[in-house]
Amino acid sequence: MAKMLDLTKGDERKTIIKYAVPLILGSVLQNIYSLINSIIVGNYLGKEALAAVGISFPLIFAVISLIIGFTIGLSIVIGQYYGSKQYDNLKKSISTSYIVLVIFAVIMTTFSIATGKYLLQLLGAQPEILSQATSYFNVFCLGFLFAFPFNATNAVLRGVGDSVTPLYFLIFSIIVNFILNYVFVAKLHLGLTSTAWASVIGQILALILMIVYINKKHPFISIKIKEMKFYKDIFKYIMKISLPSGIQQFVIAINAVVLMSLVASFGTDAIAGYSVATRIDAIAGIPAFIFSSALANFVAQNAGALEFKRIKNGLRETLRMTVGMTVIISILIIIFSKSIMTIFTKDINVINIGSEYLRVLNYFYVLYAVMFAYQSVFRGSGDTMISMLITLAAIWIVRIPFSYMLSKHLGTLGIWLGIPIGWFVGVILTYSYYKSRKWELKFVMQMRQRHNPPPELADNI
């Protein structure tokens, strides 16, 4: 049985690594599966199917981004309550979040299916891929009913320091997904929509098994429908943390939608190349994303225990690890970009577009890693509003305008160049806010005001 990890004790570097390793493995496995899925689709169903998946993904991610934002906030709230030993509020947070997520999942599934085809047309889906893209999108949206509670359960476990258990069930889901994908597409020739069904089935089975496991092994965070209650005050606090995170993730997702619409204006080959390249590119982002996620939960527990020195030490160690790994991965992707693209497609134009994207972004991925690390401190301490505002500025004031303007003169290359320009501005803003220490002051002030902190902490506030 995986143990919950107290992130407020022990060497900061070792603690973060121990917590982050299962997250890294999970992310690597997810990206490998995503790549394998693209290989299957590209080789068995052709570049039109590849483009259909690619143009659907920004819309899918736009919806998923909301749940990602909510679960980021939930994990932080759980971590803070766990770090400050407020177990009653922790239990209330779990109950409230599940009720909210189930209702939200039903609403978003209904809305997404009703508007899917229209949104894909707005995004620039060409007639030759619209039908496949719509069917794939609709089936994938049915999975929201299970993806939302699945991600919430993962967030709860991560909040109490258990990053291992979610990995086990993720591996199970990926294995089921891969087997069904290969059988449906390569053996039964059921077409693109069957790959979406494979994903939905994998998540359903993993969610059921995870809930059964938690109820048996972790009774104090058990998930039982009969005991579910809605707590208004807890909901307000979760939303205070989660809403800015949700908006931030949604902004990132809408950015992907806008970029895809720009890419779509250059034709199906550009969509296919961009679609494959973003899957490969996700690997370069693993160190930044995972170590920042680990740091956010590390900060949450230590903020709850008022251990701000550990937070600063944890940030320093995270920067060292994430920058080092990002540089190594980026160099490899830059060198082998064209060779990697040929695994997915033999179309020369698609390969050239995708490899161009990979080279441009990976020259600057260190900026992304640094920006994410600093923002994790803000998120973990509950100051999610500033992360949202910085992201809004970096994307909508810098990235999108530059990508649009440069694309008029440089084609798809101009779109890619706008992305690192936005990262550069984001690094300046995040570093400046971190040095101001306003995030630290805000947390202390909130701790004074909410939920009656335990006596052993109250004296230190």
Structure description:
The two termini are 36 Å apart. With 461 residues, this protein is mainly α. α2 packs parallel to α5 (144-159). The chain has helices spanning 12-44, 47-83, 87-123, 127-142, 144-159, 165-187, 193-217, 232-264, 268-284, 286-304, 308-341, 348-362, 365-380, 384-410, 412-436, 438-449, 455-458.
Task: Summarize this entry quickly.
84% of the residues lie in helices and 0% in strands. The protein is mainly α.
**Main pleated-sheet profile:** none
Number of helices: 17
Q: Report the sheet-strand fraction.
A: under 5%
**Between the first and last Cα atoms, what is the distance in angstroms?**
36 Å
Helical residue percent band:
over 70%
Q: Rg from C-alpha positions?
A: 22 Å
Q: How many DSSP-defined strands? A: 0
The H-and-E topology, N to C, reads as: HHHHHHHHHHHHHHHHH
Mean pLDDT: 83
SSE inventory with pairings:
Elements: H1 12-44, H2 47-83, H3 87-123, H4 127-142, H5 144-159, H6 165-187, H7 193-217, H8 232-264, H9 268-284, H10 286-304, H11 308-341, H12 348-362, H13 365-380, H14 384-410, H15 412-436, H16 438-449, H17 455-458
Helix pairs in contact: 1-2, 1-6, 1-9, 1-10, 2-3, 2-4, 2-5, 2-8, 2-9, 2-10, 3-4, 3-5, 3-8, 4-7, 5-7, 6-7, 8-14, 9-11, 9-12, 10-11, 10-13, 11-12, 11-13, 12-15, 13-14, 13-15, 14-15
